[in-house]
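This entry is passed on directly below:
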Amino acid sequence: MNLYELEEKNEQLPRAVIAGLRTDYRHNSEDDFASDFDHSMTEMKALVEACDMEVCACISQTLDHPDNATYIGKGKAHEIAELVEEYKAEYCIFESNLSPSQMKNLQEIVGVPVWDRTNLILEIFSRRAKTRESRLQVESAYLQYMLPRLTGMWQHLGRQGGGSGSRSNKGIGETQIELDRRHINHRIAELSKELEVISRTRDVQRAGRSRGDLPSVALVGYTNAGKSSLMNKLLTISAELDSPSGNSAPIKEYILGDSPEKEKLEQKKVFEKNMLFATLDTSIRRIYTDDHQDFLLSDTVGFIENLPHGLVKAFRSTLDEVKYANLLLIVLDSSDPYHKQHKKVTENTLKDLEAGDIPRIYVMNKSDLLAEDELRPVIANDNTIYISTKTGSGINELLAAIKRAVYSSRCSFKVLLPYSRGDLTDKLHRLGRTDSEEYTGDGILISGECSSRLFEEIKEFTVK
C-alpha cells in the first residue's frame, strides 16, 4: 500500500484522507511522471488546508486507466475505508474529478462524504466569497456541479412504486430527484438574471473608467503567486504621492503610527495571505506615480490547473476586467519549480477569456527565495522582470516598465486654453503630464504629454 502518514496538527479541524491515481505513462521519463503526480498531490494538500481541513493521510494507486465503477479500484477503495476509520477522518478527497456514479459508489464503500477536485475548489470559493456578486457566482457554479449528482442523494428512499399514468413506477426518491432538479434549474435561471444585471452595471462602470482616460493594468496569474502582495506594495508607494504633502511626504507616515494617511492606505489595501485562493473579488485601485503617469490596477481571482469550467463561466463577468486591460502583469512564483507549468495554465486561461493578445509583462515574484546559482538580473528581457514584494527588489524597474508599456502611445502637446475652458485645464492636470504652464492675456499656455484620446479634445487649441 502506497501510504504516507502525515503528522497530526489541530485536533479541532475536520480530518480528510487524500487519494490519487497515477494513470499517464506517456511522459518522457519516469521522473517526469512521478514529479507531475507528486506536484498534483502536494497542490491538493494545499487546497485541503486552504479549506480549513487537516490532511491526516495520503494514499495512491497506479492503474492503466481509471476504474469505471470506483475510479481507484474496489480493493483500494476498501483500504481508504480502513484509513478513514483508523484516523477518524470526516472526508475523503480525490485529486482528480469523479463521475457522479464513481462518487456514489465510493461513498457507499468509504462511509464518509467523498469530494473530488472540483467539489473542493467550489467549497473554498463558497467560504471565501465576500461580495454579493461573488456569492451569486459561486452558488451558480455549485448548482451546475450538483445537478448531475442528485441521483445518489435520495437513495434511502424508494425509486419505484405502483400507480398509473405519469406517476407510474415513480417512487418517493425518484419524485424528490425530479423536484430537486426542477428547483435547481429554476434557481440557476434566477442567478443568471441577477448576474446579468451586475454584469451590465460593471460594463457601465468600466465605460466610466475608460472615459477617465487612465490606462488599465490587470494582475493575473496562478493562485498564491503574490498578486495581492504586489498590489499592496504598489499602493504603499502610491500613497506617498497621493498624500496632502505631495512627493515630500516620507513613506513611513503610512506604515507607522495612527495617522489618517495610514488609515486611508489600509482601507485601499486588498486581503493577502499565503494560501491558495485568498482573493476572489476583483479590486481596482489607482496607482499614483512621481511623473503623473498614473494607471488603474486591478487584482483578479487566481488561476489553477483544471479550474472548474462552471467557475470560469460563473466568474466570467469578473474576469472580463482582464479582457479590457491595456496591459497584463502575469505574476509567477519564480521559486516554484513548476512556475513554467503555471505560466502555461495562465496563458491557456487568458485565451479562453479572449485576452490572449493583450501586451504583457512577466513578473517573476519571490526572487529573494532563489538560490545563489539561480539568481537572475532584475530585468531578464524586455517583458520579464524579477521582483520580490517582500524586499522591494525590482519594484521600481517594474513601475518603469509598466509606464513605458501603457504610455508609449502618448501625444506631446502645446496648447493655449481659454480661461473659460477650466474643464480641459483640470483634465490635463489630472490625466496628463504638464511640463510647463504660463498665464497669458489670451489664456493658459500649457505644454506636456497626454493620451491620444485626451489630445482629440484639446487639439483645436494647439499652438506652435
About this structure: Residues 1-10, 26-34, 153-173, 244-257 have pLDDT under 50 and may be disordered. DSSP finds 14 helices and 15 strands in the chain. The longest strand covers residues 54-62. Residues 172-211 form the longest helix (40 residues).
